Amino acid sequence: EAQVTQNPRYLITVTGKKLTVTCSQNMNHEYMSWYRQDPGLGLRQIYYSMNVEVTDKGDVPEGYKVSRKEKRNFPLILESPSPNQTSLYFCASSPMDSVPGEQYFGPGTRLTVT
Amino acid sequence: GNSVTQMEGPVTLSEEAFLTINCTYTATGYPSLFWYVQYPGEGLQLLLKATKADDKGSNKGFEATYRKETTSFHLEKGSVQVSDSAVYFCALTIYGNNRLAFGKGNQVVVIP
To answer: What are B59's strand-pairing partners?
Structure first.
């Protein structure tokens, strides 16, 4: 089944404790992206990647890191999480030869930082 | 810059009622327009799209027409069901750029 998977789905952590949220897709998509969803703000893009070893900042990159060493994986790293990073996070992917904007979303990771 | 504006507030309506969610946009270049839907506890799914002016996107009884003259892409459905309860997001991207700009979303609640 074609899908985008994220792990973990739920995570409660404390301020300053490094964490990684994994994202994997099995559709051989070149483009991958991370978003955060907050009430009243909709979805905002954190980072995106056009292909392996090619990443760039989105609209709200502060406090986050990403890497793209393999085509299928795009982990999101919070090196020192803070309470303002409590949010619902989505990973998405799409092929570069599709209509730009047709993205496939993962199920989401709900992160709480205390 | 590129941005999308959706009408404020949740939408509550009865089953079989007519649904309209307004979406207007600001963009440089020639945007493609999208509606995504998020069912409770799930990720977003593409509902419909339109890639050029006057195109009408449609899916699952929902429709939206790309109106360049009014920079709008309003979502409509003639007779909603309880299963249509979800959050609906309008979005745009510019040709050749895979980045999506989302509106804030509208919660739709359909009451039996």
So the answer is: B62
How do residues A14-55 score in pLDDT, each as one tens digit? 999 999 999 999 999 999 999 999 988 889 999 999 899 999
Chain A positions touching B97 (Cβ under 8 A) are: 100
CB-based contact A41 B92, cutoff 8 Å: no
The per-residue pLDDT for B29 is: 80
CB contact under 8 A, B103 and A42: yes
CA dist., res. B59 & res. B48, Å (int): 6
Please tell me the distance in Å from B97's CA to the nearest CA on chain A.
6
Structure tokens at B96: 């050749």
Please state, in angstroms and as integers, the Cα–Cα distance from residue B79 to each residue in A107, B16, B61, following that order.
28, 4, 8
> Residue A38: in which H helix or E strand, if any?
strand A31-38
Q: Could you tell me which chain B residue has the CA closest to the CA of A37?
A: B104
Backbone angles phi, psi at A83, to 5 degrees: -55, -30
Q: Residue B61: how many CB atoms within 10 A of its CB?
A: 13
Strands A10-13, A109-113: pairing kind: parallel
Record the tokens describing residue A79, joined without a space: 């090196």
pLDDT digits (tens, 9 = 90+) for A93-114: 998 777 778 899 999 999 999 9
Distance from CA of A94 to the nearest CA of B (A): 8
